[in-house]
Amino acid sequence: METELYKSLKEVPKGSLERSSLKSVEGVQLLHSTADNWEKIACFQAKPDDLLIATFPKAGTTWMQEIVDMINNDGDIEKCRRAPTYIRFPFLEFWSPLPTPKGIERAAEMPSPRVFKTHLPFHLVPKSFWEQNCKVIYVARNAKDTAVSYYFFDKMNLIQPDPGTWEEYLQRFMQGNVVAGSWHDHVNAFWEKKDKYRILYIFYEKLKENPEREIRNVMAFLEKELPDDIVQKIVNHTSFTAMKENHMSNYSTLPDSIFDHRFSFMRKGDVGDWKNHFTVAQNEEFEDDYRKKMAGTSLKFHFEL
Ligand code: A3P
Fold it and tell me: Structural domains in the chain?
């Protein structure tokens, strides 16, 4: 756990961070520091046995990271407690404004088989991942719950742009003016490409509805067989309650200078929480916009269970 990254994060003085602004790369809004270093990120060299966990932010990335780590470690909880999520899995495009090792630097140093996280939309994922035919697990979550989760995350994460009020934020989300750009473009592009490349497309709502079934899907994709009792152990260890209590998966180890811990990373973990936040008028406007942007796709989401 005492890696260079962890030590440098702990040293960030409280109040020293300025929230980042957004900057566009090929029409997609990214953190300014990521966009400024785009050329270096885009030419990252993947290896054939790399696994990429790709998501639009707040779709259940951390959940999938824990599931994959448990599968890769044959359900050994102690091994999965070796370090916090953000240390275990390099975040490919993260080019922190802090003097900490960058995502691609950490990724390059990692021994194979490597597992990375990315929020990049399909067309910005470094080309080498597709050239090397790497496996990709894509997790998608319905747009309304994603927007709510992202709003609270942006309040908590002091590197992200200030979300403003919920009303302002929802407008920005619809316009794609958030880190990773348009939710609609993101989920649609991976959906369209899923049969051309080795992409396993998983829905947050289905994972919530039947975690064992989806974990077995992930195991099959990773060509991993495990006995039933280990699968059950993975289901239990990756439940919302277990992950919320686990300091290695709940982001509580990040210092107050980076995450405002008055908010919780493991916030609710529900399907349908959007109903507690969208007004009737906001819901109508959102659905109007949604229908237009999702017209012509076979991709369907569940907004409640
Ligand atoms: P909420 O803010 O709705 O609670 P990401 O890891 O992509 O940033 O996504 C974070 C969201 O996934 C948060 O959603 C978090 O609570 C939820 N999450 C994380 N682990 C989960 C689990 N084991 N079960 C259900 N939801 C989980």
Answer: 2-293 (3.40.50.300)
- Alpha-carbon gap, residue 153 to 90, rounded angstroms: 19
Banded pLDDT at 16 (limits 50, 70, 90): confident
Mutate which of 154, 214, 240, 250 for ligand 1? The one with the most ligand atoms within 8 Å of its CB, which is 240
Atom of ligand 1 nearest to the CA of 65: 6
Kindly give the distance from the C-alpha atom of residue 268 to the centroid of ligand 1, in angstroms, as a whole number.
7
**CA separation (Å) from 304 to 180, 207, 208, 273?**
24, 13, 11, 9
Amino acid letter, 302: H
Ligand 1: atom nearest CA of 55 is: 7
| Rounded distance from Cα 132 to ligand 1 centre (Å) | 30
Q: Find the 63 Cα to ligand 1 centroid distance in Å.
A: 6
Q: For residues 160 and 9, which has the higher predicted lDDT (pLDDT)?
A: 160
Looking from the CA of 189 toward its CB, the CA atoms found within 13 Å total 17
Give the model confidence (pLDDT) of 37-63 as tens digits: 999 999 999 999 999 999 999 999 999
- Reported as type and span, the H/E element at residue 54 is strand 51-55
